[in-house]
Write a structure and sequence with these properties.
119 residues, alpha+beta, 3-stranded antiparallel sheet, two-stranded parallel sheet, 6 helices, 55% helix
């Protein structure tokens, strides 16, 4: 599997965070906060696979561009960046040795931690 950083998604996550659209939730909340399969399908039907891709920090180049399986490491709920989603992505990227994704997620995670300390 050739998974690499989705730079467009990284830029989107950073922009959404700077715009104040984020949730400072706890690590274990991602299982409850991540979009369901139905929510993913509804989002794709309304916005297209390209917009769907911007909510995933990894791209698997071996998968077809129109396949949801191409897009890895989700980080939000299609409206807000979730700290728990970033933490989950950071952990999985590190385990799988996708260092470019791990470093990008660590940067985003750091942005949210600064905001959390200010709150």
């Amino acid at each position: 599997m050739a998974v690499r950083l989705n730079e467009r998604a990284f830029d989107h996550a950073r922009d959404v965070t700077v715009a104040g659209e984020y949730v400072l939730d706890d690590r274990d909340a991602w299982s409850e906060h991540q979009p369901s399969t139905q929510q993913e399908n509804d989002f794709i039907a309304q916005h297209g696979i390209g917009e769907y891709a911007t909510w995933h920090l990894g791209i698997d180049d071996e998968q077809d561009e129109d396949n949801k399986g191409r897009y890895k490491f989700p980080y939000g709920d299609f409206e807000e960046v979730h700290r728990c989603g970033l933490l989950a992505a950071e952990s999985r990227a590190g385990q799988r040795k996708y260092y470019d994704i791990e470093l990008a997620v660590a940067h985003l995670h750091g942005m949210l931690d600064v905001l959390r300390r200010r709150a």
